[in-house]
Design a protein that fits this description.
The protein is α/β, with parallel strands linked by helices. It is about 25% helix and about 25% strand. The chain has a single domain, classed as Rossmann fold, CATH 3.40.50.150. β4, α5 and β5 form a beta-alpha-beta unit.
Length: about 200
């Protein structure tokens, strides 16, 4: 299953087919609606961090990027302007500790072994402050091209899924405010993305 070596190799070899080379339009629109630019934001599995660059441009003051790949984090240190508004951390998400007002989901969930999804929900709940939010994008599709002949389930990442299973999984720890099809996805992902906004129980 994907680990630090796996992700280092993907970045070193340039196998980053998921990379849109831009901030995700649904997330950009969401960020533009946030009134408080001092909230503590975490982007786990941050990848090439276009969202973080956009947050910096818009004056957000407290963003943390987290990724398991040291290769990637080193590249981001060179790419992104040094700023007290931005922290870069090389670590396993499941070992991370902290407290955040907003956690952004952007192709991190689909990169995890599906067996880790209950742990993902638990950790997200643990990291969010009371009244915080988990927001972002989930794929509403399967990735059949990743299934090997005779396999009972696809290999990956990415790993797909659908609204009903996400809802069942998240409702154990979150009140779901929004889980619906995106109207403003990039063209290659049109009709295959769900936008999520969820608050950890208990909701204040």
């Amino acid at each position: 299953m994907p680990d630090e070596r796996y992700w280092n190799d993907r970045y070193l070899q340039g196998h980053t087919e998921w990379d849109m080379r831009q901030v995700s339009p649904p997330l950009q629109a969401y960020f533009d609606q946030l009134p408080d630019k001092n909230i503590a934001i975490l982007i786990p599995g941050c990848g090439n961090a276009y969202e973080a660059g956009y947050l910096l441009e818009k004056g957000f003051t407290n963003s943390t990027l987290l990724d398991i790949s040291p290769v990637l984090i080193d590249r981001l240190r060179e790419k992104l302007p040094p700023s007290p508004a931005l922290k870069l951390i090389t670590a396993d998400f499941f070992d991370h500790r902290g407290g955040y007002d907003l956690i952004i989901e952007q192709t991190f969930f689909c990169a995890l072994d599906p067996a880790k999804r209950p742990d993902y929900v638990e950790q997200m709940h643990r990291l969010l402050k009371p009244g915080g939010r988990l927001a972002g994008l989930l794929f509403d599709r399967e990735f059949k091209s990743h299934a090997a002949p005779g396999d009972a389930a696809p290999v990956g990442p990415p790993f797909g899924g659908h609204l009903d299973e996400y809802k069942k999984l998240l409702e154990k720890k979150f009140r779901i405010k929004t889980l619906a099809s995106c109207y403003n996805s990039i063209r290659p992902r049109a009709g295959t993305e769900l936008f999520l906004i969820a608050h950890p129980w208990p909701v204040l």
